[in-house]
Amino acid sequence: MLRVASVDKRFSAEGPLVLDDLDLSVGQGEFVSLLGPSGCGKTTLLKIVAGLLPPTAGKVFLEGKESSEPSRDKAMVFQHFNLLPWRTTINNVAYGLEVQGVAKAERLEKAAQFLQLLDLEGYENHYPSQISGGMKQRVGLARALATEPRLMLMDEPFGALDALTREYLQDELAKIAASQNLTVLFVTHSIDEAIYLSDRIVVMGNNPGRILLEYPVPFERPRTTTVVRADPRFAELRNQVWLLLEEEKAGR
Question: Can you give the pLDDT at residue 177?
Fold first, then answer.
């Protein structure tokens, strides 16, 4: 589905290498998390895949075709909600469809469907200032899903939320990804979140950004947080990832 081939990134000709000869493949319907220390280039890689940043070298392919610019096949959900404050909830969700030139009646109908999917019925005419942080993030997710992307790119979308809201939205995302057969590339700093959501965890190191190791996640779907956390394999995998990150931090 997605292939990142030998990607390098510098932000200036004389600047440091941010990403170094990075290769990554993600299969159709796979949920892959990028995990690593701050500054290792996770968000930079996500923006390159989205077509928001050009690589210095290398290429990105989507379903076998080079993909160097934003397209309808890709949608990105950011850590910050980025909702338009003068638009109601339903019009925020419909915004991506509006940009694509979808007729008003059709885009509002589709936006309403995704508001229902994310349990936001009754809030269609609320403005961002009138809803909670968790609801804002659900609106952002609904906006991305409404464009029916083939690839969802998510940059720490739950990082600013409280623990309970975060776990609730993790469950919702897992259900939606499965029901929509979404391919997801997900950036997080949380090992627990990566294990719970992912089919595979890609651990990155820094100076320069590169892939250290990949870990398959051994849990079948559907999953529940309590069952996964109680499984001895959860603690074992968490410890493996933690030790790798500690070794990278220590420079060994």
Answer: 87
> What are the beta bridge partners of residue 251?
none
Gap between the Cα atoms of 143 and 224, Å rounded = 26
Please name which of 119, 114, 184 lies closest in space to residue 146, comparing C-alpha atoms: 114
What are the pLDDT digits (tens) for 83-103? 999 999 999 999 989 988 899
Give all strands of the β-sheet with 57-62 in edge-to-edge order: 19-26, 2-9, 57-62, 65-66
Which of helix, strand or coil describes residue 148?
Answer: coil
Most confident of 79-88, 101-110, 171-180: 101-110
Q: 2-73+153-251 belongs to which CATH class?
A: alpha beta
H helices present in 51-204, as ranges: 89-93, 95-99, 104-117, 133-146, 163-180, 191-197
Domain boundaries, the chain: 2-73+153-251, 80-148
For the chain, give me the number of helices (H) and strands (E)?
9, 10
